[in-house]
Amino acid sequence: MSAFPLPPGSTLGILGGGQLGRMLSQAASRLGFNVIVQDPQPNCPAGRVSQDQIVAAYDDPEGLTALGRACQVVTFEFENVPAGSVERLQQGGARVAPGPRALAVAQDRVEEKTFLNRVGAATVDFAAVDSLEDLTAALARLGAPALLKTRREGYDGKGQVWVDSVDKAELAWRAIGERPAILEARAAFTRELSVIAARGHDGAVAVYPLGENIHEGGVLRTTLAPAAVDAATQARAEAIARAVLEGLDYVGVLGVELFDIPGEDGGDGRLLVNEIAPRVHNTGHWTQDGCVCDQFEQHIRAIAGWPLGPTKAHARIEMTNLLGDEVDQWRSLAAEPDARLHLYGKGEARPGRKMAHVNRIKGSL
Amino acid sequence: MSAFPLPPGSTLGILGGGQLGRMLSQAASRLGFNVIVQDPQPNCPAGRVSQDQIVAAYDDPEGLTALGRACQVVTFEFENVPAGSVERLQQGGARVAPGPRALAVAQDRVEEKTFLNRVGAATVDFAAVDSLEDLTAALARLGAPALLKTRREGYDGKGQVWVDSVDKAELAWRAIGERPAILEARAAFTRELSVIAARGHDGAVAVYPLGENIHEGGVLRTTLAPAAVDAATQARAEAIARAVLEGLDYVGVLGVELFDIPGEDGGDGRLLVNEIAPRVHNTGHWTQDGCVCDQFEQHIRAIAGWPLGPTKAHARIEMTNLLGDEVDQWRSLAAEPDARLHLYGKGEARPGRKMAHVNRIKGSL
Asked: Which of A28, A146, B206, B215 sits in a 20 to 30 Å window from B255, CA-based?
């Protein structure tokens, strides 16, 4: 394997060619790296800004072997990479970052919460559900309403359903396809926060200021960052991020979604981890215009064995996703003096599809 | 022709695939455009971050016709584009921006200075030189030392020589290859400034704060921006930029190099135009980390018929070019907390070759 840090001119691989892969590729180019993307859609958004694209499914053995051979390190824009794919990449001769452990934990919601609790990161109470009987028992223990989610896959609110009462258990169980699931107790949170953090090959950790997130219909709408939080909350979030990164022996950028639970009777508040994403994260897009080193460059630095970049914010940012035909707002957004547009180069503006985001600069820090 | 503003998803063409083409392509991608580059070097720096590359000489008729057909607008990263090439592009059906007038003026130093004086932008005294006799006469009029330059081509100090005295005239005439030339009087300037400005299709003009430039051996080493100048100097530079842009009916970003001549006995100072570059300019690289809309995005906005972006600086930047093997400094630069690296993806670090630049953030504004 090539020695770290990988010099400019090295080739990096990205599995997945959507907007996250595209912005990773752009950050890698700025540091002088060449990028090859593997994605089944020809001429995908990330492929169009990269040196090359291997047009193949994410788990295509030949594609993965070729990608691993061409690249000194391979990373991914989504967490549902099968363990077998990672092995193929490694057989090609590439490092893979983040590693298989992070993927395995992030792919299974029961594994994930079990891991989180083990490293001291609190979550809502939960129960594994493999049958309707399990679900009924779990509802009795955790109370209703509770949230039933498939253990694997699902994102942006897909594959999950609220169970309002015990007599709705069967309906809910069917709604998620009678698949292995997790039941999560409801959290009495006042807002959703997230923290983006990175860990280098040498174990160094860098944490960005918290963002406050507003979701609509299960999909992120807006992140305000740095969030208005006290120093204790920021410190709690940093401790959680560090525990997760170290517990996974993680290399790269990771997003941690948090529930902010205010303290009662003047006591300390708490942060519960909702979920972790072993990749750059939509709630970290604000760093592109709020920080000297954004989450994309940070991820590239980490996986290439470079020193991590600074995470201090120099501006207050309001990041808003443009979904579906909201992307047509580019005309008016382009005329806003303090708005920075990031368009993903996607062809079809299907309803709800993430097409672009805008970072509005709300003042310097 | 497609109506302005060109929507995201349109295809832009760039003639020339070096670092300027690369950074233009990256800015265009961020706005959702697809980019095709034409450059004779396969897998050139800009081609590696673009959807496609036409591997052909800059004046290759077939390449130009194909580029013009594929693109809604074509621009260039250098000014020595022959007029015939522009016609070919237009025949393919593309707009070309900036237009032929700007190219013609910028390609001939006598035409350039004549134009500048006509629109009210002062320059040093100069004379066209077509023979040794012309040179001797010009030296008698302008005095020695004076600077002899070829009328066409030459950049970064190439194709020019100082003539110290009349008896060195023949030596100088031979040194520049006895080609059509210009003799320029020496300017008593205290420093070199530059201004980057843009003009939209609708005639709107946007001007960035001035930069102060330090050259070494005829090659730009450092730009400090915004330069420490008084409001009158900034206003003078803006008036010059506006006169040049309007005089050329220009669309896109243009760089104007200036000599700062201090006022005598407390009088007003003057700015003389050294030269204009009808393209994004090395002395504007600081805008990438000092402005919300950098010169590359600004150029793309202008040629795509979008509204021009804001030009206010939010940070003080020191931009330094990394020439030849200085690019090896990436290791230490990557560890500097307030440095932002921009590497060009060039293979061979030949002496003096522009390989990268670094923007050091010297405080917010």
From this structure: A28
